[in-house]
Design brief:
This protein has 54 residues and is an all-alpha fold. The chain has helices at 2-14, 18-25, 27-51. The protein has one domain.
């Protein structure tokens, strides 16, 4: 949601099309953020296994 709103706002303010806005606002950050999300899930699962469910 944040990516979408930022991309649309950037396109409106700067006056570029959505493809150009995507290239500047989403593309550089999407893969690193996906990697961080996968790492967070892996950490959460490891903590759950170590601590156990209550």
């Amino acid at each position: 949601m944040t990516y979408t709103c930022g991309c649309v706002q950037y396109a409106a303010v700067v006056g570029v099309d959505l493809a150009a806005a995507f290239a500047v606002t989403i593309a550089p950050f999407a893969i690193p953020d996906l990697v961080k999300a996968v790492a967070a899930v892996a950490c959460a699962r490891a903590v759950t296994r170590a601590v156990g469910r209550r």
